[in-house]
Amino acid sequence: MPYAVTVVFDIKEGKMEEFMEHILNNARCSVRDEPGCRQFDVCTDPDVPNTVFLYELYDDLAAFEAHQTMPHYKATGPKVADLVANKTLRTYARVDR
Fold this sequence. Notes:
The protein has one domain: 2-Layer Sandwich (Alpha-Beta Plaits), CATH 3.30.70.100. It has helices spanning 16-33, 61-67, 71-80; strands at residues 3-11, 37-45, 48-58, 84-93. It has a 4-stranded antiparallel sheet with strand order 2-3-1-4. The protein is globular. The protein is of the alpha+beta class.
């Protein structure tokens, strides 16, 4: 069953460029290297300049759990920890119609 993950990051003032470098690399590696990662979008809103929204789609919960064990995922967390003021993660399982 498809599994969606959303994350909203509030980035500290002056840290957006550095944050984007790391999160875009994580997104590229996730889609390229993880068979269960179907989509990994990094989104911004010009009207909310220090906020980043991620939309990730995985084959299932197991694929998301595998994502969390990947070297690029594990490397990204420590690199962005001091750049983020707040992080909100939500997960969703698709409801079959």
